[in-house]
Queue: 4 jobs
Job 1
Amino acid sequence: MHRCALFFVVRSDGSGLLSIIQFNEYKNVELLGLECEPGPEEFVRQHVAYQYGALKSKTSMMEGRLQDIAELVRAKNPSLLLQIQKTAVHAGEGSVKRG
């Protein structure tokens, strides 16, 4: 059976090495090694800002859709909505206690 691992080592100068290593019974084989250099700070800043904006937009859209569904359930079956809300509150409490 072959097992693989992905390693990313960041050096003190900011460069890095991304390696995929395959562990065999008798030896370890590097299947892929990629040298990485840090990107320009402005590019990284723009990329993070874009990704944050895209995620924020998607979250807003999903919250709007969830609100639409809640309104539909409230109109069709109010007791079901109450049950869903109770279940969601209990599920949220459980994850908070564990985390």
Job 2
Amino acid sequence: MNTESLALQVVPTDDDDAEDVHDLSVRLRATLLDLDVASVDPVPEVGPDGAKGLGTVLGALMVGLGAAERIARVLRTIGAWVRHTGRTVEIRADGDVLKLTNVSAEQQNRLIDAWLERHAPRD
């Protein structure tokens, strides 16, 4: 399987308002832009007729990896961000979802490794 992009969603808590989630996604975006990826862009809203809306999907980012080999580094960086912030991020690729939460680094690494088995580039 060749994954070249990842869709991310910062999952809001019951106490979050739109500004909180937006600020979190801006911080996550800045963290990911420090990596060697092609792009990290907010996801635009899509109207019912398929036309782009006036805003962005709250907390959603699209990461263009540029090369599928970068997926592990991106996931580990998101995992560190999740542990640091105590937040949850859902990652989607090829119809599969990985939900990273504030669990131990060991548990998180096992989840990431299992997900990578399904999505990492094959030689």
Job 3
Amino acid sequence: MVDVRADIEQRLERVQAVIEKQGLGGLLIYSHGRHNMGRMDQLLYLSDFRSVGPCVLVVPRSGSPTLLVSPPWDAARAGEAAGVREAKGVDFRDLAELTGREAAKLGKPLGLAGRDVMPVGFGEELFEELGDEPADAEKLVPSLGMCRTPAELERVEMAGRIADIGFQAACDTARVGMREYELAAEVEAAMQKAGAEDNFGLIGGNAHNQAVRPATDRRLEEGDLIIGEITPCYKGYVAQLCRTLVLGKPTAVQQEKFELLIEAETQGLEAARAGRPSGEIARAVDGVIGAAGYEEYCKPPYMRTRGHGLGMGGIAPADLTQQSASILENNMTFVIHPNQYLPETGYMMVGDTVVIDDGAARRLTQTPLQLFWKAV
């Protein structure tokens, strides 16, 4: 097991080196306590603390950061986090004032990250306490966090194993007459038992799905294609698995078209290599599906992206489209998903979280690449 405390210390050292290089006196990182798989949680990245309320991490040019925690009763939990040396509990009404006091110990100019999720009133109060408006440092930490560290990768891999467990639960429990939300609950329960702390889950079924969506109270029927996008979070890090389960025996057409999507993912995985533009993944996926006569379905409104950054936020390689220009690097983690609407079958899903490992893509989700079905 990787030493998380040492891993975070190394992240902090890289951030502080950039703070000094940019001539900043320090960095303030604001978190609103709501977590989104598409947005990097910079406070979590440097503290290993997943907040439930507004917090500020005060990062000096050297030495340990100070974490200001609201609600104040959460300071004890914060103090147990691997990257926290000093945690101070504070009522949100006093957070701006205390941030100003801590910031006064730093040099100027200050950098600020998290302004985009900061309440306007709080921002105005904070800038008044600081005496001036800090520099925009929103990209400072993400620029250093595009590739997973050993401790981060360990967690993404665990999230991938939990996603596999979630889909297996769907296969085991799905039945005719079950409501979609009941199936979603079975998936959630299995993943929580395995260690998930959250899940961005979309799951539903129909004989001809238009798109993936949240579960409803619709009852599952024989012949339904149950499509699922399962995205568990483990200690702040997420992995995603996309698969399709037929409730009943699949038709020959469904098997044929799903094999097309499997080939598209296979080619996407082959294109995911270090040093190449990420757009090559989307071009490989679209090339397979387009060559089968579905080029028009590789574009909006039928399809938006062939994958996206994943792990801690979607910062790299961002959305996988044919125009994506970001260069793939070792230890980048992201999902490749040739999810596709086809007129003969409706929307079907297949996709896996991968890491660029030794120059090539390695799947972190291990559920077999196949169309699943369950006799009824």
Job 4
Amino acid sequence: MFRKLMYIVCFMWLVAVGSVQATTSTYWLGGGSGIGDWDIGTNWDSGTPTAEKYVQINSGAVTLNSASAAAYDILIGGSATAVLSMLGGTLTVGSDIVIGDQAMATGTLNVIDGNMNVASSLIVGQNGAAIISLSGGTISCNALTINSLGLIDIANYGILIVNGDVESDINIYIASKKIVSNGRVSTVAVDYNVSNPWKTTVKAGYVIAREGDLNCDYMVDYKDLAALAEQWLQQRGSLPYAYIAPVPNGENAVNFLDFADVGEHWLENTMP
């Protein structure tokens, strides 16, 4: 019985060791013929990152614009300022992505377009300063942590999606200015189980509308119509920005009354 038990223990140990050895690390070196490109193997110490590799970008600027890319775990900002910019495509992270990994270093993630899917946690400002500039594309993660030196700035059509109902946590981050929109010029819109089923969605919102000007750019035009269409028939609450018809006539939803208000001021300049 003892011998059988030892066989089982040894087998489990071998499986565990094999699993650990299957995941290797690769470090950003920069230089080479494709300076800045993620998919240039000579920019890394052991080739282009794959789904089985821990990726560390300790310094320098990395650009990812390939159709698809993967890593098991990503650390940005180890020994100095480090930047990862995503211009398109899809990045799949099998575990965590940590921005601002070490003290005295700044990690920056710029998402301009594309989709980033993080299977586990998105950690912003673990030990050092960290900034996420989400001006386009989508970041999806299972969990979100923003520490004291972390900041997420959402603008334009950037979208952050967190699994489950974490709306109250997001609102705490917003209140403490850890999540802002357009450098704090606009508000942050957050909803649970509205934009995406059973997920919390965070994106750039609009300040209080004036005379049909939903995005407060002092002109009532197609941009305001697009914002209204995006929120059509949604209830007033987390996304009130297109809800401009007054209570009780507004019926507590974005509907034809709000559309009529936009139409009434169509192409008007709303400068106070």
